[in-house]
Amino acid sequence: MNDTNVSHLSSNGVLEALAAELGQLTPETRKAATYVLENPNDVGVCSIREMASAAAVKPNTLVRMARTIGFDGYDDFREPFREEIRRGNLNFPDRARWLQSLGQSGQLGGLYADMVESAIRNIEATFAGTNAEKMKAAADDIVASRNTFVLGVGVNNSNARNFAYLADMASYNIWAIPRSGGVASDDLSRANEQDVLIAITCKPYRTEVVEAAVLAKEQGATLIGISDSPASPVITSADHGFVIGSDTPQFFPSSVALIALLETLMAFVIADAPAEVIDNIDRFHERRHRLGIYQP
Asked: Distance between CA 205 and CA 110 in Å, rounded?
């Protein structure tokens, strides 16, 4: 039995320790260990019974396997693999399966805590990576532009449209694209050096967003790139780049930090605007009250 302290090991460290013990295991335990080594993504998302069935062994065999490298039991053994998922290091289907396993095993309290922690961490990381000067520089270009196009697809489409919706109150020429029935390249066909494109995409990067960013730059437009990596193609080619935190226990990237960034950028746009913009916002709401859109 391995007496090494394993509480600090990463999932890769656990796999290395298990591989080192492989030759010393009984045939059944070796069968379980071999399955784990060949299917490490299953460890964090499958129950012990599911793993045992897939490996064609009994659940107790997995417990013995975990103990051979120093863990108290199988739950302790798989905790580093679950931590990898919490950090967002597995693909969408694996993370969805993990969420279902939490619901089935009564661990939603831990999921709740992880969601809160990741949301706060994403916002902190996002704003630690930028500053007021960078935000103002991007806002200056938006205010000075003839048109600003905001491009997001998938889950980011609603975020782009919300940004454009808020801008509409101030009577800015800020448009969410692609427009209904069209494609982004058509919306940008007349864009030039007087215009701005805000391009939003996170891993895995959407082809149409990356291509639109390239097109906008070729036509002389200013590019504001928002993504979850400094290596993102919409960041590396941007005039103004903002890297957001998007890690989450969910099976899709978190939008919390993106929304916070866009709200802050809109605040800078309004703060940077001439006085008549505030009058436009007041008239917008006065009209809604007059038409009965708001409850008295």
From this structure: 30
> Where are the chain's structural domains?
11-105, 121-290
Please state the φ and ψ torsions of residue 221, each to the nearest 5 degrees: -70, 155
Residues 196 and 163: their CA atoms lie apart, in Å, by: 14
| DSSP-based three-state secondary structure for 94 | helix
Residue type, 79: E
Model confidence band, residue 13 (pLDDT cutoffs 50, 70, 90)? confident
CA distances from 41 to 80, 121, 221 (A): 11, 25, 43
pLDDT over 70 percentage in the chain: 84
Listed residue (73, 226, 47, 56) closest to 142, CA to CA: 226
* pLDDT tens digit sequence for 173-231: 899 999 877 788 889 999 999 999 999 999 889 999 999 999 999 999 999 999 998 88
User: Domain 11-105's class?
Assistant: mainly alpha
Complete edge-to-edge strand list for the sheet that includes strand 196-200: 174-177, 148-151, 196-200, 222-227, 240-243
Pairwise CA distance, residues 251 & 93, whole Å: 7
Whether the Cβ atoms of residue 233 and residue 205 lie closer than 8 Å to each other: yes
| Beta strands 240-243 and 148-151, pairing class | unpaired
- For domain 121-290, give the fold: Rossmann fold (3.40.50)
